[in-house]
Amino acid sequence: MDEQARKTALRMIPYGLYVLSAGTEQGGLAAATINWVTQTSFAPPLLALGIKTDSALYDVARRSGDLVLNILGQGQGGLAFTFFKHAEYADGKLAGQDIGWAANGAPILSAAPAAVELKVRHVVELGDHHTFIAEVMDVHLTRSITGRPDESVLQMKDLGEKVFYGG
Questions:
Q1: Cα 50 versus chain centre, distance
Q2: For residue 76, is it within any domain?
Q3: If the chain, 167 residues long, is cut into consecutive pieces of 10 residues, what is the mean pLDDT of each piece?
Q4: Where does the Flavin reductase like domain lie (predicted)?
């Protein structure tokens, strides 16, 4: 296979950007920017999320099984970059960001326009990212979304010409 052609073709898949958080204030927290997310079922509502196996997020997500998918909006590239690195919880903030708490105990980023509470139902252990299949337990909208909801989401391409993931 031509490696450059593979990268080009796979990078043509559009990606939204999200901050996935896991754990609880008492049991240890982790969060990271992710982009491999898709809905896989309507009933029950299920999402598939790719999580890098050597990340702190992976360990906490496996242990707790309770997640929050914080959906980033247009103009929140800085927030995406914040969670490209290790997220510390200190003084009631996660990586310096204001948070609230989901019913499952995981943190919700106050700045995210939407958040989805998830319960891990299955993990597919293949590759360098494992696929977490998680059921939607609740949703939170922090502001009114006008127009097409999918047009309000921060996308990988919004971070600039040199930022890629995948391929």
A1: 9
A2: yes
A3: 88 89 89 96 97 96 96 96 92 95 96 97 97 98 90 88 71
A4: 10-148
